[in-house]
Structures are given as C-alpha cells and as structure tokens.
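task queued by scheduler; priority normal; single chain, no ligands, no partner chains; default sampling; output format set to structure tokens
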Amino acid sequence: MASPPFTPCSPPNPFRSKRLIYRAVEDNEEDRKFLHDRLNDPAQQLLGTMVLPRPKTRGDAAQFLATQQARLLGVIICLPPPEKADIEPGLTGIAEEDELTMAHKFLYPEKPIPIGRLSLQHTMGAGTEHHRNAIMGISFIESARGKGYGRESINWALDWAFEIAGLHRVTLEVLSTNEVALGLYQSVGFVEEGRQREAIWQYRKWHDIVILGILEGEWLRLRGREE
C-alpha cells in the first residue's frame, strides 16, 4: 500500500502504527525490569540471540539498555494505555496477560504497555554510516506473540528506515530452526541472501544462521511506489 501524501504542516506520527506505540528506551526502573525479563525469556535466549543461554542479571539488563539507546533506532514496542485502546473495557488486547503486563497495568495505568523491543544499528560499525546499511533486532513477550504485532512493527520499522532515516538496505539474521520468524520476515519482503552453515550449537546439533535483506527499491515496490 502506498504511503499517504502529507504536507510539512500535517506529517503522520512517525512513532505510531495502527495498533502500536513506539517509544524511546528509558534509563529507569520500569525499562530495566522489562529488559531484564526479556533477557531471561528462554525463547528469546534460544531463538533470538547467539549467546550462551544462562540467567541474566540486572547488570546485564542495564548494559543491554545502554546499547539500545546508542543504536540508530532503539524503541520499546507498546500497546496504548488500556483506557485508550480500541478493545473491550479492562483488556489490553492480549488474550492471556502475563505477570509483567498485569503489573504494568496496575502500577502505570496511564502509560502505554510494553510488549516488545526493536532496534536498528549500522551493520558495519562506527564510521560506516555512509553505506546506509542497518541490521534489525526485534523480540516480544510471550503473551504478545502470534497476534500480528511482529508484522506491524517490522513494517513500521522499514518505513522509518527508508522513509525517514534514508537507509538503503536493512538486514536480519535468524536461526534456521526458527521457521515462524523466517516465514514472517520473508512475507514482509526480506529475501534470503545467504547462510552461515552450522554456525550455532544447540542441544547437540549444529544449525545455520540465515541472513536476509531488503533493499530500498524492493520496499518501494512493495509500497506501490516508483523508485
């Protein structure tokens, strides 16, 4: 779908999508706890990272928070506050709320409810920004998975990357056994570009890292626009 036209006097909100809000990662107890819980999620450790699975400390969460803030884009993915959500009264849109989400509703009833995080960072490191390449990272709490929030967030991030940040290429890396994520990434326009064969060791087996990418021109065609 083509992006709607706008004038400088009435630009679209770059930090909203249809159902979600994208806010900065804050150096506060709320975000440190959220990221600490994310880092200790078994699915996140086994499917979303390449590091050795082990319990993460609050110090690990603080370090991860700092890296998210330093990236080209680092956001917390949120649902609107319950009273503003277009849903049944008292619900957040998540069928089975986890303990973290329920606690957030009780402690911060006026604030958006965090359900995930997303980042973009320059692929080649500092001093290579002129190549306009970035790699995306994304994860969600368990109760927010399988509801289309990943697809919505990735499409939002691609629009931000190519429309606002002026990137030319966005990549992703995913474990070959994560078939759900692979299918999602390919369905929104990412193309498999290669594999690091038998690069990951899990449960007495070797697995590939699949490298996917999408170019600016491919994104334009998906949005029904000419390059």
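post-processing summary
- Residues 149-164 form the longest helix (16 residues).
- The mean pLDDT is 87.
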